Amino acid sequence: MTMRCAIMGSGNIGTDLMIKLRRSELLDLVALVGIDPASDGLARARALGVQAPHTGIDWVREHAAEIDLVFDATGGMWVTDFGKVEERRRDRVGVYYGRPARSLI
């Protein structure tokens, strides 16, 4: 069984990863996701028949049920917090994005 994947980031790293994932027998590339509709990486993805939306993380959220794994090729970092349930309180679940040196969380 293959894992359905998406790549966030249509720059050099994301485009290189796209080429590698297309050769994989275990990973099925669903989309290369970017934010610049005129990006060379998105144009290259479209030419190869790969979905190439330019709506960034919004596209990933809308298609989360169709994706098993997301590669972040933007240089940032995703952190998942599954929360916890205790007798008298419940923490909420969240997905957070951060950049190096805490410049954005």
* Largest sheet report: 3 strands, parallel
Q: What is the residue-averaged pLDDT?
A: 84
Instruction: Let me know the CATH homologous superfamily of the domain at 3-74.
Output: NAD(P)-binding Rossmann-like Domain
Portion in strands: 25-35%
CATH class of the domain at 3-74: Alpha Beta
List the helices and strands and how they pair.
Elements: E1 3-8, H1 12-22, E2 27-33, H2 40-47, H3 57-62, E3 69-72, E4 77-81, E5 85-86, E6 89-90, E7 94-98
Helix pairs in contact: 1-2
In short:
This protein is an alpha/beta fold and 105 residues long.
Give a description of the structure.
It is a single chain. α1 runs parallel beside α2. The protein has a 3-stranded parallel beta sheet with strand order 2-1-3. It has a two-stranded antiparallel sheet with strand order 4-7. It is globular, with a radius of gyration of 16 Å. The protein has a domain at 3-74: 3-Layer(aba) Sandwich (Rossmann fold), CATH 3.40.50. The longest helix is centred in the first third of the chain and has 11 residues, at 12-22. By secondary structure, the protein is of the alpha/beta class. The protein is built from 3 helices and 7 strands.
Main attributes of the structure:
alpha/beta; single chain; 105 residues; Rossmann fold; two-stranded antiparallel sheet
